[in-house]
User: Which sequence fits this backbone?
């Protein structure tokens, strides 16, 4: 297979000891708003008083050995999500930042309907807009004062549990550290490992920081019909778009009031608006381009699928060695050019939240051209992933949840970062350069059991961006609600 000429000094640069291609004329999006979430820049911005961002690794070899060697008696048998069960019994809950939208308001009502105390903390105008609680605490001090302030809240209000969404946000990283020191359970939420209709909820940490599957197992007595079903998701994109616009509008309006606040990504309304508007304007063109690109796919030949993430994804920033997504793409393409079969194809899909970055297609195809594989590379902004997974030769990902979907389809997965599903019987442990010619499928029995364990032990059914009127349906009911997530 053709490779790039070695004499590319004028069109390359060295970053962290690694040569990278410079693409003349390509609109690289790497210096966009997403760049600001890199770990080193965020730590520098938060000040020396905040503990540095430590990448809590999954301890791949040790964890895998533990999962294989532990007997059934050593891991706690559970019939449902252990973190949710513990959250249900928490008597005095401190709630920090939630996702965009009213989800945390819904959870607060659910907890109070059971007679428990809830104290909420808001950090910016966007948080305040989606927190109608008159008793909420406003944190307006500098981030360096946050650790001591949090300790005083925990002690002063007899807090026996802390709930947060997004473990890598600056305030939450420190909150997790403080809670561990004080022996206070911390419940971490994140978008679902399995989507749509689920949200991740674990104690202590999620993704590569998760320890749930090491300490718990699915009870053998659990019937298949007791495995949780996804919540009905209603107009997900519309609700997310509207709630995002409102959140960032009020975050911007409240900048003076919350002058010391540090966000985990850029907050420029104009910058986000340019992405949203650009994506909307170019939607007919990108749809036509995607249709044309998919039409080139020859399913009689082997094809590999590469689902992209966004640069600001905490899983990229804290749980991978890549500075940005394009660095990952370049490494994958170089390996593909050098080692994949000559008739193999490479499908690269842009992340839905990155569709406004209109230079990505041009940049990726320029990299493909440089490595001499332009005719083998297919780039799409959107496609039906499940259709690609049916006959895919293999999936290469940093640590996207698409990897879990691929495992459920019994497709070979090469993981390039750290993830909860990094287990040698689930993902292919061999190096990338040999993966192209001999991708290994997961062990079907182990993969099915793993997927079931993830769903039972780490997921909770919920429409993440549903309106506040929708009941959570987690047990116990809020009389002020009118509907249920699991309506029949």
Assistant:
């Amino acid at each position: 297979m053709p490779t790039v000429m070695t004499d590319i000094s004028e069109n390359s640069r060295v970053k962290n000891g690694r040569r990278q291609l410079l693409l003349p004329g390509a609109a690289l999006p790497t210096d966009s708003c997403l760049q600001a979430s890199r770990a080193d820049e965020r730590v520098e911005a938060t000040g020396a008083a905040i503990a540095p961002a430590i990448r809590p690794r999954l301890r791949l070899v040790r964890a895998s050995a533990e999962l294989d060697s532990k007997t059934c008696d050593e891991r706690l048998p559970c019939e449902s999500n252990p973190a949710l069960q513990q959250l249900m019994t928490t008597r005095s809950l401190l709630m920090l930042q939630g996702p965009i939208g009213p989800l945390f308001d819904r959870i607060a009502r659910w907890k109070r309907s059971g007679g428990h105390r809830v104290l909420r903390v808001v950090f910016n105008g966007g948080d305040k807009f989606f927190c109608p609680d008159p008793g909420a605490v406003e944190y307006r001090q500098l981030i360096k004062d946050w650790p001591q302030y949090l300790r005083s809240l925990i002690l002063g209000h007899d807090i026996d549990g802390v709930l947060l969404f997004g473990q890598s946000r600056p305030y939450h990283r420190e909150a997790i550290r403080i809670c561990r020191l004080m022996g206070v359970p911390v419940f971490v939420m994140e978008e679902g490992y399995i989507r749509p209709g689920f949200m991740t909820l674990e104690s202590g940490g999620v993704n590569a920081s998760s320890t749930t599957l090491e300490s718990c197992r699915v009870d053998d007595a659990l019937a298949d019909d007791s495995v949780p079903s996804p919540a009905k998701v209603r107009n997900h994109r519309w609700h997310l778009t509207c709630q995002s616009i409102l959140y960032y509008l009020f975050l911007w309006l409240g900048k003076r009031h919350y002058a010391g606040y540090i966000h985990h990504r850029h907050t420029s309304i104009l910058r986000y608006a340019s992405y949203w508007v650009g994506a909307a304007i170019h939607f007919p063109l990108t749809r036509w381009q995607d249709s044309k690109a998919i039409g080139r796919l020859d399913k009689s030949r082997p094809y590999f699928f590469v689902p992209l993430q966004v640069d600001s994804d905490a899983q990229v920033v804290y749980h991978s060695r890549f500075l940005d997504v394009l660095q990952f793409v370049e490494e994958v393409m170089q390996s593909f050019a050098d080692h994949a079969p000559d008739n193999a194809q490479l499908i690269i899909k842009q992340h839905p939240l990155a569709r406004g970055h209109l230079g990505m297609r041009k940049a990726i195809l320029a990299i493909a051209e440089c490595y001499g594989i332009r005719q083998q590379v297919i780039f799409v902004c959107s496609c039906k992933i499940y259709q690609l997974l049916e006959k895919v030769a293999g999936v290469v990902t940093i640590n996207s949840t698409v990897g879990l979907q691929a495992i459920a389809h019994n497709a070979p997965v090469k993981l390039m970062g750290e993830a909860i599903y990094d287990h040698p019987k689930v993902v292919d442990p061999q190096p990338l350069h040999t993966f192209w010619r001999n991708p290994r499928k997961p062990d079907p029995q182990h993969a099915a059991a793993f997927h079931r364990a993830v769903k039972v032990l780490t997921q909770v059914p919920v429409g993440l961006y549903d309106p506040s009127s929708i009941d959570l349906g987690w047990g116990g009911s809020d009389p002020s609600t009118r509907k249920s997530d699991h309506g029949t």
Observations:
- The radius of gyration is 23 Å.
